[in-house]
Amino acid sequence: MLYQSTRNADIRVTSAEAICQGLANDGGLFVPERLPALGPDELRALQDASYEERAKAVLGCFLTDFSEAELQDIVTRAYGQGQFSHSDIAPVVKVAEKKAVLELWHGPTSAFKDMALQLLPHLVTTSLKKTKITDTVAILVATSGDTGKAALEGFKDVPNTAMIVFYPQGGVSEVQRLQMVTQEGGNVDVVAVEGNFDDAQRGVKEIFGNKEAAAKLAEAGIRLSSANSINWGRLVPQVVYYVSAYLDMVKQGSVEFGEEINVVVPTGNFGNILAAYYARLMGVPLGKLICASNNNNVLTEFLREGRYDRRRPFHKTISPSMDILVSSNLERLLYHVSGQDTAAVAAWMKSLQEEGLYDVHGAAWDGIRDVFWADWVDDAVTQDTIKTVYAQHGYVLDPHSAVAWKVAERYQEETGDNRVLLVVSTASPFKFNSSVLEALAPETLRGAADEFSLLEALAAKTGLAIPEGLASLRAKNVRHSLECPAADMESMVYKLLIK
Ligand SMILES: *Cc1c(COP(=O)(O)O)cnc(C)c1O
């Protein structure tokens, strides 16, 4: 099976090439040219399988140029070596009648990015071998917090790779900063940029677009790549947990095999919910896919009205990983709902680039409306939801997951659709401890000395254990103290990569 660009059907590559390249040469995203099926028999066969085995089967559907031995090696390295603190890797927890939570945060950094970023590095190194590329792949990341740490954990000490993470000085939480500056691994560097996230992001994009930089690095045997969710290698591991969650719900007796469930996803770049869409197209019995947003509600408007309009103010919220105005992975959805109309996708993306908006009509729009539903909630309602769900069910939600929970309730009230709901939970409450404490025990926030006392206060309030990766930070040494102005990021890359 080959992959093509969302903007040009003549650009066709193997999955290994798609993963090495990240983005197609015309700026489009790589998509599978046809979708594999996972019918009832194939699904049933995975009923008693482990997460690793399920991952191997789903990856095998999409990465047809990888051998069985290669896939086995990749899934074992990602999920079979104790990096996840829960033996189910992505457990489904029944929280209320007809409502279960899919916990995607038992990985090393306590947020859902680990699900894909523990696997991506091994996909990249295997893809390099398969395409006979001998260069070192250097991953550059600009991060506002979660992605940087998850990528560092995934790529540390992975052969033939190097990584530099740029974060805005003063622009990440103290836990996030400590997670990054204490990072171990001989092939990774972390640099504080004097500026905000946009400055860091712009700096990285400029280096990616700079042909001279590419030539200079190529001479030293280095090629640049990206670990963000435009890479197909980030998306395909996310399809796995929808397959796995459905089978677990059957096992738990929450649904009959074949019965449809609805899924609610707290959404930013549209990667996670797009993976649910792929699982649905393959045949997993998923009904409505419900897109939950915060105050940055550009996707709610789009999925209700068919108009994507990024010309709006940017809001900082207590669910920061969803603070985003341009959801890159929507381009892949447009490709599929338009009947693989690459010219239409190219035109929409051009309109977004030049005018800041685009409109979707006709069959493509019907294809979206049939499957998706959307709503958003503000910070006050998010806090209130954390409090209410804890009071009613004793379950602690982080702010992102609380947004999804509230939208799930609204969906049921407004539509009367009573199918079982799977609420996707993307972060441990400990990762966003001050917002959670604000909702559950505001008195503990006053007088808290530092982030570690907040972690302890949350553990004391809820009886939950602090995740190991966060608890151990206090004792770790700072290993990275590089700083640079945004204008010097390019020379920093040469200094760190060209030895
Ligand atoms: C990245 C992230 C999201 C958004 O996921 P997308 O795939 O970008 O839609 C939601 N919650 C958390 C905690 C995240 O880290």
Describe the overall structure.
The radius of gyration is 22 Å and the shape is globular. Strands 4-5-15-10-11-14 form a six-stranded mixed beta sheet, with helices on both faces. The protein has 22 helices and 16 strands. The two termini are 39 Å apart. Helix content is 46%, strand content 16%. Strand 6, helix 7 (146-155) and strand 7 form a beta-alpha-beta unit. It is an alpha/beta fold. The model has no long low-confidence stretch (mean pLDDT 94). The site of pyridoxal-5'-phosphate has 17 residues, from helix 12.
Oligomeric description of these chains: single chain
Shape: globular
Radius of gyration: 22 Å
**Structural class based on helices, strands and sheet pairing:** alpha/beta
Mean pLDDT: 94
Bound molecules: pyridoxal-5'-phosphate
Strand order of the largest sheet: 4-5-15-10-11-14
**Total beta strand runs:** 16
Question: Proportion of β residues?
Answer: 15-25%
The percentage helix is 40-55%
Contiguous uncertain segments of 5+ residues = none
Question: What does the main sheet amount to?
Answer: 6 strands, mixed
Distance between the termini: 39 Å
The helix count comes to: 22
